Amino acid sequence: MRVAGLGDLGEDVIETARKIVKEGLGPICDNCLGRQFAKISSGLSNAKRGQILKEVLRTKWNLGEEIELQGKCWVCNGLFENLDEWVLKALEALRGYEFDSFLVGTKVSGMLLENEELIWEIAGASYAEPLKAELNREIGKRIERETGKTVDFERPDLVVLLNLWTEKVELQVNSVFIYGRYRKFERGIPQTRWLCRECRGRGCEKCNYTGKMYPESVEELISSSILAAFKGKYMVLHGCGREDIDARMLGSGRPFVVEIKEPKRRNVDLRMLEDKVREENAGKLEVTGLQYVKREMVAQIKSAKADKTYRVGVRIKPKVPEKDLENALNTLTGAVIEQRTPTRVLHRRADMVRRRKVHSAKLISFDESVFFMEIRCDGGLYIKELVSGDGGRTKPNLSELLGTDAEVKELDVMDVFYCCT
Fold this sequence. Notes:
The protein is of the alpha+beta class. Helix content is 32%, strand content 28%. Strand 5 and strand 6 (168-173) form a beta hairpin.
């Protein structure tokens, strides 16, 4: 049998539609009937498809009485008669959020799942579309019309979640990611919040009831300056490595990505934010080169193996001739260092041997007991242990080459060689 708008349905499809109407548990709406045959033809809504099928059953099978039963659809419980109500709930939930794209999702209630399984037992599921797929699409089209925003199946700014259990609309707001570089001008500031070792963040006498080992961090300083601009819940900083707490981060700065969680705003002037961070953290911190990036940049920056340049102030006892120092640095240049996990970080790093190369080591200045040198090396080389030797865990090392004790007294990171792509 051929029906206008549906093509060659065949007697088996008409028979299936008749079976649904005859054996169903009550009235069935156009959407739910048409949805069972969604894969047969394109260009029609499920509601239109259901109307056509009902007309065939009414005229060819005299099923007018069954089709015109009054009451809520037994499959969706009247859900598709109340789409406008769900749209209003969604628009109210979206009020105050800045977004360009969205996606609709549905948490289907247990009753509706059972009803869908029952109709599939009657009709089979070969041609059917799931209820939530149709609901997501129909609500999505209406939200598009009302807001002028677009549905994005790959990278939506937020997800409108229709919770059929609670009859409420929930939002899942995707994070905003911003790449940049930070320069830290003060020593004693960790990169991220460092919980007190005694209380693990609960607050105790040792940490003055702050829950932290240090009063501030790079992450907290940046967050205090920019989080409010995005109206976000909180911020996470993902760094391309990290410098020691007592080291400054100078030069071009350390690459990082900040993740703004659950932002209500998504389009903020980043140059303005750079100025804000600089003004509010004068003498401590600044950020440069801010740009919006995608989530994948977090993994990229965390796994990057960036070369680094350090300026190192070293104290030596007793005094050694400048020529001996230059010879030692020449020996380190080009050397592959075998470095067992330093004693000072064994509590948080696996005990293993890492091999890192020193690309260059040169003397900057020299006096009786302290000299400054510049080291360029592979990322992941611990500079303090390269100088001290760490009881023989780092080989070769400067102390061993000089034949005297050497200790880092001042450390600055001058460059992190990483290119944002």
